Amino acid sequence: MDTNGVRAIAALSDPTRRAIFESLPAGPRSVAELAAATGITSSAASQHLKVLRDAHLVAMRPAGNRHLYSLDPRGLGDARDYLEQFWPSALAAHAAALRTAVATEPAQPTRR
Q1: Torsion angle (degrees, nearest 10) of CA 31, 44, 42, 10
Q2: What is the model's pLDDT at position 104?
Q3: Cβ-Cβ contacts under 8 Å for 99 (sequence gap 6 or more)
Q4: d(CA 49, CA 65)
């Protein structure tokens, strides 16, 4: 099992962490900016950012006396790789459901 992918998905399952993560595509942001954007304290934001960092979803770099956070593509790649293992069976199930739906549809009268 891909534990890194599971870790990334688990990290994003929390609404606050997801909100922090979703506020980063525009560019690097400080803890204070992320806290203000999500309506939580800086301390709470730091705790959520640690989980996101551990899941490789965000990266941190020092900038003077602040830490700036940005997206880390490794975590999303891990989550994508984990989910891709289910794609063939999901497509097969979808195709089977379509075949069943078509087979059970009543015949349409033909127009002349």
Answers
A1: 10
A2: 85
A3: none
A4: 17
Backbone dihedral angles phi then psi of residue 59, each to the nearest 5 degrees = -120, 150
- Could you tell me the fold of the domain covering 3-96? Arc Repressor Mutant, subunit A (1.10.10)
Whether pTM > 0.70 for this model: the answer is: yes
Reported as a single tens digit per residue, the pLDDT across 28-68 is 999 999 999 999 999 999 999 999 999 999 999 999 999 99
Segments making up each domain of the chain, as ranges = 3-96
If phi over 0 gives left and psi between -120 and 50 gives alpha, with beta otherwise, what is residue 40?
A: beta
Beta-bridge mates of residue 16? none
- Show the CA angle centred on residue 64, arms to residues 62 and 65, nearest 5°: 90
Distance of CA 17 to the CA centre of its chain: 10
Evaluate whether 76 touches 4 at the Cβ level (below 8 Å). no
Task: Report how far residue 90's alpha carbon sits from residue 55's, in angstroms, rounded to the nearest whole number.
Answer: 26
pLDDT score, position 55? 96
